[in-house]
Amino acid sequence: MSLPxxxxxxxxxxxxxxxxxxxxxxxxxxxxxxxxxxxxxxxLGVQHGWLSALGGSAAxxxxxxxxxxxxxxxxxxxxx
Length: 80
Fold this sequence. Notes:
With 80 residues, the protein is mainly α. The chain has helices spanning 3-19, 23-48, 50-63, 65-76. The mean pLDDT is 92.
């Protein structure tokens, strides 16, 4: 198993574990996952092609759609 796939599997299992935490404890590990995901997706794309990066991007956007929307609105000054 390649390193990017191993990192993606560990990331997915960690994200599942974080989802079981109470909301007040989800923020710190969630930020780490939010920052690590694009790095892992780029690694997947370089090693295994753009289709795997596209699938990883779709999964990332699906899982983090609310935090991404929140930060997008915060950075652009648009109200939710």
